[in-house]
Design brief:
- The strands form four sheets. Strands 2-1-3-6-7 form a five-stranded parallel β-sheet, sandwiched between helices. Strands 8-9-10-11 form a four-stranded antiparallel β-sheet, with helices on one face.
- With 225 residues, it is of the alpha/beta class.
- Helices cover 43% and strands 25% of the residues.
- It contains eight helices and 14 strands.
- The longest helix has 17 residues.
C-alpha cells in the first residue's frame, strides 16, 4: 500500500519513512505545501500523513482541496498543535485521525493500519476473490486454504487488483502504486510484464479460480475463470 508523508521536519520525516518501509508500505514524501498539493492530485494514496504547520501553507488547506475534489479519506493529521479547535477543524474537513507530536512510531503504525481497515475492509483483515484469499496482517496469500508463496511485489500487485477487482487497471496506475512515483524514470513497463507472468504462473499452478487477463495496449483486469 502507498503512503504519502507531508512533513517539513526532515529528521521526523526520515524516521517515519524508514519505519513505514520496514512495515512494507510504499512511501513518498513531501516537505512543503506546494509539493504536497501537486502529489495528491497526480497520484493515488492509501493513506496520507499530514502535518498542519507547513512552511508555505496550511495542511488544513490541503484537506479542503482533497474534500473539494472528492478525494478526502484515509488521512491522519500529525501536528504539534494540540488545541481542540485544530482537531475539530481537521476532523470536520475529512481527516480520519489526529495524532499530536511527539508520538511513538509504533502508535502511528497502529493507527495507520486501523484507518486502512476501517475504510477499505470494514474491519476485516483479509481480501477474498474466488478461492484466492489475502491475509493483509500477515501478508500471506492462500488458494483453497493452501499457502501461495509470493514475493513482496507479487503480494502488493495482487493486493491492488483485489482492491480494484471491478476496474480495469492501467499499467501506469499499477506501476505508480506498487513502485512509487520514481517509476517516471523507467524507460518502459517490461518489468510489469515479467511480474505478471510470474503471478499468472503461480496462480495456475495453485489452481486458483481467478486469473489476470491482459487488455491490449491498456493494462489488466482480474476476473474469475
Amino acid at each position: 500500500m502507498k503512503i504519502l508523508i507531508v512533513e517539513d521536519e526532515m529528521e521526523l520525516s526520515k524516521s517515519l519513512e524508514e519505519s513505514l518501509i520496514k512495515e512494507q508500505f510504499i512511501v513518498e514524501v513531501a516537505f512543503d505545501f506546494a509539493t504536497a498539493s501537486e502529489k495528491i492530485f497526480l497520484y493515488e494514496y492509501d493513506c496520507i500523513l499530514l502535518d498542519i504547520g507547513l512552511p508555505d501553507g496550511s495542511g488544513l488547506e490541503i484537506l479542503k482541496q482533497l474534500k473539494k475534489a472528492g478525494k478526502a479519506g484515509n488521512i491522519i493529521i500529525i501536528s504539534a498543535k494540540d488545541s481542540l479547535d485544530d482537531k475539530l477543524a481537521g476532523l470536520n474537513l475529512g481527516a480520519d485521525d489526529y495524532l499530536t507530536k511527539p508520538f511513538h512510531i509504533a502508535e502511528l503504525n497502529a493507527r495507520i493500519k486501523a484507518v486502512l481497515r476501517r475504510k477499505k475492509l470494514d474491519g476485516k483483515q483479509h481480501l477474498q476473490y474466488g478461492n484466492l484469499r489475502l491475509d493483509l496482517e500477515e501478508r500471506k496469500a492462500y488458494v483453497d486454504q493452501k499457502h501461495l508463496p509470493l514475493n513482496r511485489k507479487e503480494f502488493d500487485i495482487l493486493n491492488y487488483f483485489l482492491f480494484n477487482k471491478t476496474r480495469l487497471v492501467t499499467k501506469t496506475a499499477l506501476a505508480e502504486h506498487v513502485w512509487g512515483d520514481n517509476i517516471d524514470q523507467a524507460d518502459n513497463f517490461d518489468f510489469i510484464y515479467y511480474q505478471m507472468k510470474n503471478i499468472r504462473k503461480k496462480l495456475r499452478k495453485a489452481k486458483a479460480d481467478i486469473e489476470i487477463e491482459a487488455v491490449y495496449g491498456v493494462g489488466y483486469r482480474i476476473v474469475e475463470s
